[in-house]
Each structure stands twice: as C-alpha cells, then as structure tokens.
C-alpha cells in the first residue's frame, strides 16, 4: 500500500500530440481517486503511464517512495483492471486469478489456495472451474477484481471498470466497488468519463481537459464549487446554468434581470465588469410568482427526471434551467421565476472561479 | 401471458424452421442450379482425375510400348512394388524432412517471427520487409528457380562470391538443405501475412495484463498469443504442410539429384511416371501421396476441432 505522486508528468505521443502536460498530483495512501474527463482528455494515458504501459516523456512517477518512471510495468507492483477485463479465455477462473502469482513463481498449492480465498470473498466460489466465456459480465468483472486482489499490489488501477456492464448492474457494481476498496484500503486510481460514477465512488477526483488537470477535489467540492467553467459544465447530471452577467452595484445583471451578487464573490467584483454567472438548476428556487432577485420568463420545456422536473425558462431569449420538485411542475408556456440560491451561485471571471 | 399481440397460429415455429434451411428462399431446384456449375467444374477437374489416378494405379499402363495401347489390370501389384521399393521410402523420408524443415519449422517459425517483430511497427521498415517477403512469394517459379541457381552456382554464384569460397557445390553437397532454405524463403510470405492478421486479433489488453503481471516476452507468447491464435497456427500448418508435401519446385533446383538425394515424392512421381514412363506405378505412388495428405489433413482438422 502506497501513496502515488506525479511530478511534472508529461507524455507526448509520436506525431506531437501532447496527451499529458506537466501534471503534478499527489494521491495519498488508501485513497479512492477518480480521473474524470471527456474522451481524449488524457485520463487513460495518465493511468497507463502510472501502470508503465506508456513511457513518460518527462517528469516522474513515484509509487510508495519509489521512483518507478523508468521501471517495467511488471516491476512496479501495481495491478490493473482493464475495461474489457482482459481475462484469458483459455484459462478457468482459478487460473486467471492465480496468473500473476504463477508469473511470480508462487507454488501451485499456494496459488490455488490464494485464488480460492479471494474468489470466495468476491462470491465466485461456485464458478472457479468455469472459463470466462461461461460467465456473465458482472462475474467477469469480479474475476478481474479478484485477479488484482490476489496480487496484493501496492496500488490498483481501474480503466473504466463499469463501462462494460449494463445500467442496472453498473449501480450495484458501483456500491460494491466502493465498499471493497474501503475494506481493502489499497490506493486505487480509476478512470471514468461518467461524472456520476466519479462523484459516487471517489474520495477525491481530478477533472482533466486536453492534458491538463482542471480541478482536484472531493466530489462535494467539485460539485458545489467548480474551479472553472469547464468543470462547471462537465460536472452535474443537469448542466449548470452559465450566463453572461455584468456588475451593477451590489447586483448582477443577468439576462435582463437583476440577481444579488453571490456570497462567494462578495467584495471581489468591480463595477461594470463582465462575468459569467453560474448556478446549478438544483440550486434555484422556482416559483410561479415574481420574487426578489429572480430570473423571470416563459417555460419552454419541462423534462421529467423522476422525483423532480427540469424546467427550462426563456428569460429574454436566454435559456435558464431550474429543478422543480414533483407536483409543482409548471406547464409549457406558463410564466415562471427561478431564484438562484445566493450561497450556491458562483461567478467566473475569464473562466476561473471568483472566490476569496 | 398478457401480451397476446399476435394470434396463436403465429407462434407455430414451422416457418422459422423452414427459413433456417432455405435462407435465400430459392427452393431446391434453383439453388441446385446455382451450385451446379461449380460442382461440375470440381467433378471434371478434381474428382474425376483423382478417381482416374486410383484406377491407373491398378493397371500396368505405360507411356510407350505394348502396355500403352493395351494396359491390363494388375491389381495391387503397383502398390506392393512401391512399399517394397527402398527408393520410395527414401523419397518419403526426404519429403518428411522437406515438409518438417521448410514448412513446419522454416516458414512457420520465420513467418511468425517476422510478423511478431513487425506487429507494432509502422512505416518504411515494415513496408520494405513485407514487400521483400511477399515478392519472393509472387515471383513466377521459373524466375525464382533461375535466381536460386544463379545464387548457388558453384563457380560464379553470388553466395560463394559473398562467402569467398568459390567452387563450393551447394546443390551437390547439401541438396536437401538447399531446397529446404529455398522453399522457406519462397513460402514464408503466406505464413507471415496469416500471422500478421492473427496477431492483430490478439486483444492488446490481454498482452498488457500479462505485462503488468510481470510476464516475460516468452511468457506473453505462451500464455496470451499462442492460445489466441491456435486456430490460425493449425490452419496455417495444415495448408503449408499439404502445399509443401506436393511441391514440385525442388526439381527446378536439383532435379532430385544428386543421386536421388533430394528426390521428394512429387519429384519421384514425375521421374517414375513421366521420365521412366511407368504411368501405372506413378499413379499408384500418387494414390499413396493422396492417402498421406488425407491423413495429415484429418490430423490437423481433428486438432482444430478439439477445443483446447
């Protein structure tokens, strides 16, 4: 078990594509860490560079006090679960789980004992003689996890561990993975493009864009206080309202309406400045009656989210979204008012969060 | 069952069964008409000659003389003559060496090695190597034979000039080695291309998974690559074993000599039947070759069918 540290890590692919641009990152021992970002942002490259499957162009990777930058993947003492699980089709479950031990020249009896022990822990004990082709997707994933656990590596790396499961199973696996990681206490880095997955599982996460880390923080931090408009737009199951604004005294002019300056930006703005005002649909209060400091307009779309509704208001030709609890949803064409919560609204100057 | 959206008659699976037999819906007659030309060609050019060879093998048919006009059925005489003739067994043994050396070891090992080394390469090196290997394959046999005779020539050959040993008689001193290397060179392209395609189907994550476990290059081959391309290996072995077994091109280099030292079965048949004129005996040996081929094919197909 070990902490992971990246110092100025850079990866340039042949052809000049800069996948990682001088990244610094510290992942403490035992943390469940998510790398999140849109496709092509470099998150998978980062994970693969950690594993040693890609060689870093510059900078260093330190795992548990040991600089492993130039070390072969097999000697780094990390284990990885691949997106397709990479189970060997010609080996049964026991042999698959025990494979890394076999390479490390662990005796056959010891290997099988260890495989059986880990397999039983993951509920695979009835399946140990089967081939991967005879297992369901969820079972295959557990075999891949068992293989990783059997290695007793210092760190685990998961590459999109849930993306090959169907939607229902994915939720179960999410809970299961989080519980397992907590019990094992092994430093784990996982890559995902699904922000809900990252928010749900990770202790902390890094949001990446084009080879840069745009924000590192706990799920609560990145959700409530995105450090820039990229993270603000990327995180959240309903996209954050990002609206052009101008400072007018102690209010902001947004889409022709006046809203109070958010708590986080108080005293940090200059008169007449042009900014971006951000508020999540979840952090607005919707009402049919005009209210102080709210954005008023006509309801153009109502989307059902299950226990709530996402209402889109046309406020002077600007779309503003608000989440409305079930039962209170307006009809299309109604007049409505969305009042942002002052303690949750944010202001971005040149794309970066304005805060003390 | 609440979903009674279709009448119970539609649940009858008879139509589905009919589709599985006649997917194109042509009917027996029209489907037969489509297959007939191909079947006719196969019958005329493959089945009939094969049967004719078996028939000839039972006769004392000769190229010239009385038996050419008036051949008689001699039963199994030709076959008995063959299996009691040391020259036949010598040829069989040489053919075995030829197949093992040039096909199973030479072409497969070399073809796989080239494919493995080039698997992650792009650009000029790969194109040049592949181009050269494939060139050896697509050149006409007569041209290739001339090139090799020029290469191995005793007094003015390229190889002797390169090695600085003029006068070394490669084709006389090492006839089998010469034709084995010649055939390896000639046929490697097929194996290389087949393995190149096969290696492209090995999931990279499986190799990476093995690498992360600390597997060496050989262990990766043993545990990931070979199990994945097992079918390709067997198919490749089947094809090139049969091709090499029946290959006549060694004749172009050594003419079976010196003194029968490179007389593989294909050459042996040619010498017996066409140079010696003993068509009946040659046909009998051809029938035996056919049987050996059949055994080889069945052996590989069995391996291929037995899943792991």
Describe the structure.
The complex is a heterodimer of chains A (356) and B (308). In chain A, the strands form four sheets. Chain A has a six-stranded mixed β-sheet, sandwiched between helices. In chain A, strands 13-12-11-14-20-21 form a six-stranded antiparallel β-sheet. Chain A is elongated. The model of chain A has no long low-confidence stretch (mean pLDDT 87). Helices cover 24% and strands 35% of the residues of chain A. Chain A folds into two domains: 4-231, P-loop containing nucleotide triphosphate hydrolases (Rossmann fold, 3-Layer(aba) Sandwich), CATH 3.40.50; 241-353, Beta Barrel (OB fold (Dihydrolipoamide Acetyltransferase, E2P)). Chain A has 356 residues and is of the alpha+beta class. Chain A has helices at 43-51, 93-103, 108-121, 137-150, 167-184, 195-201, 219-224, 229-234, and strands spanning 4-12, 18-27, 32-36, 58-63, 66-67, 78-81, 155-159, 187-192, 204-209, 212-217, 241-248, 251-254, 257-260, 274-279, 284-287, 295-304, 308-315, 318-325, 335-340, 346-349, 352-353. Helices cover 73% and strands 0% of the residues of chain B. By secondary structure, chain B is an all-alpha fold. Chain B has two domains: 13-57, no CATH class; 84-305, MetI-like (MetI-like fold), CATH 1.10.3720. Chain A binds chain B through residues 51-53, 72-75, 78-80, 82-84, 86, 88-90, 99-100, 103-104, 151, and chain B through 203, 205-206, 208-215, 219, 223-224, 227-228, 308. Chain B: Belongs to the binding-protein-dependent transport system permease family. Chain B: Residues 93-300 form the ABC transmembrane type-1 domain. Chain B: This is Amino acid ABC transporter permease.
